[in-house]
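Hi V.,

You were right to ask for the full record rather than a summary. Here it is.
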Amino acid sequence: MVTLKILDRKLGEIARRVRESFYSSGFYEVFPASFIKSNDTEGFRFIHRNEVFVLEPDITLRLMEKQFPPDSSIFYVSQQSDRNLAESLKTGGEIIGGDSLGSTVKILKTIIKILDGLGLGNYSIDMGVSSIFDKYKSSSHWTDIKKALKSRDFQALNKIDSEDRSEIIKIMGTRTRNSGIEILDQILESVNDPRVIIDLGTVRQPDYYNGPVFEIYNSIGFIGGGGSYSIRGINACGFTMDLMAVYRMYTENMEAGK
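Predicted structure:
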């Protein structure tokens, strides 16, 4: 059984090494606000002076509240809470400004550097593009289709009475190293790592992504993800990673190495 003291020590060591990887990749650290004012953001809400605030919501939304100069490469290590006040420790990086191709390549290479630097080589990064299912949004079944896509539920898709069903299922099941989608193929070639693969069924939440998106997995499950988005009209790309999931990977590797 891992005591709180040992857990904190190991998380501290992981956070230190994560920071070193970010700094050596040209990022600088920022400290996101602990809450934002919002009526519709997911998370734990509270009212102060008749205004609705959300405690430690999605970190990208918190960063959007701040003003960063163009061509900023930033990172953070921060708490995040859900609507039930369950806390998690997140790290992530954002590149604000620059083109989608170059920013996504740098972000993916930084993720690889972080995980490899921790000795965690057994992972995969699935990459897609946020717009690939946009043409189906006019369907009367879009709510059900979207739900099935986000959970990768092929059985649910098969039950939807839509003429687009077969085409959607084919796209969702496509894993390849040559998609015919120029920006994805260019990113894959530039990153040049066999653990990165194009998976056109990759769908990210929330819905502010507007370009390449990706998710990180290993044997324990989901580790993190990110993609391209816009912040006050400026292109940006970023990711977030669950440090508790990284910790479980780390300890699993340590146990396997004994």
